[in-house]
Amino acid sequence: MTDAMVDLIPGPIHAENAPCQKIRLFAADMESTIIEQEMIDVIAEHIGCGKQVAAITRAAMEGAIDFEAALQARVALFAGLDIATLDQLYDRHVTLMPGAETMMRTLKAHGIATALVTGGFSIFAERVAARLGFDSWRANTLDIADGRLTGRLVPPIIGRAGKRRALEDIAAWRGISLSETAAIGDGANDLDMLMAAGVGIAFRAKPIVMDAMLSRAGGAVLDDGNLTDALPLIGISIA
Description:
38% of the residues lie in helices and 21% in strands. By secondary structure, it is of the alpha/beta class. Strand 6 (136-145) and strand 7 (148-154) form a beta hairpin.
């Protein structure tokens, strides 16, 4: 395995005090980071409660309300939905963020382990992880009975604290220190994970996330939608 050196390269990326050290694990949020959609909003639009759910999602991502409570409230609205519908929504709507495939190929070429860590749903995360070749993934599991959603989640719920625990667990399992990790995400529920990682990257993020990353050592902000711009932050070039 070849480790990459972290070396902040000046350019359109806003960052302060990025550390210069080896990165061996790269963790990424899924929705509005690796994929362009918020799938909970896609489901809501499909069943006719899009505005209601989108407002809750926005407040949760901005940190105005507790993520876990907001997630449970939204999932409760999906009770009775046929699980096959979720497969159809994935096929119709999911698109990768520009640069996602190139970023993942480059990370693999440099021997960096990858983890998809999302507060979204496993039925989508599993497919995205397989499509891009993530080494690990963590997501919330929808409770299902007789092929339909019950409106509940299977514990434990992966929220803000859960994302940090996932990063810590995956790193520990691989024998990697947190200082050797990088994480990227856009919402308030990513904050603990971004703060714990050696390099935390706010990607097209909410103001609370951008402010946090710009004020911490090892924090950075990417303003545009191309994930390949994350690569210079961990000192590697496109493969």
